[in-house]
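During the reporting period, our protein records have gained a structure token line. One record among many is quoted in full directly below:
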Amino acid sequence: MPDATLQTLLDASPWTRALTPAQRASIVANTLVKRVPAGGYVCRKGERVEHWIGIVEGLVKMASVSPDGKPTMFTGIRNGGWFGEGSLLKDEPRRYDIVAIRDTTVAYVSRAAFMLLLDESVAFNRFLLVQLNERLAQFIAMVEHERLLGPDARLARGLAWLFNPVLYPDIGPTLPLSQEELAQLTGMSRQRANQALKRLEQAGLIAVEYGAIRVLALDGLRQYEDRDPAPPPSHDHAR
């Protein structure tokens, strides 16, 4: 894999901007860049965590499967995103699977290089604090949305997170994303995801283009609250 592939990701990552030349050289020397095909595992639940992971180009989903086979979708991670710092800091087995939704180029920064930056760089520590806080807010919001919002609003909020400027800096308003891929990210059927997209488009929040979604009103997606309708009142009377 050409060095330019990794250099492009590092140039776009805010945490590299305060690194010394020696620190950056250490990251480059201790990072493996790998192509993961659609449906392949970027990393697997239960394995020992040996890398901090960045998405150079592509799209992945964070998910888990219960012992009885029930899948749970957590979130999607797009190009420019980094993840896995929490598991590295706690030194515990990974608690989720990361699966490529499309062919994806992935950067694996070694544990040793990550820990060295943690010891040496104040700016890197500040970046991690912001990153962890943003992820915490994302997962708290997911629990809230699952309990309070209907599927259209859940899709809107999930889509908004893919355009979060803290997690994905230097991004534009358009994301190459098919309806099938969006359905995988949201845990919906393709038909249900398509219905939600049409409603969001009718509301003037997005434009669905060929193989892509363009956000017209990011704040509108974040605040969309199309809750499931309440059940009709019962007409039964006690006798």
Notes: The longest helix spans residues 122-148. Residues 15 and 126 are 9 Å apart (CA to CA). Residues 3-140 form a domain with the Jelly Rolls fold (CATH 2.60.120.10).
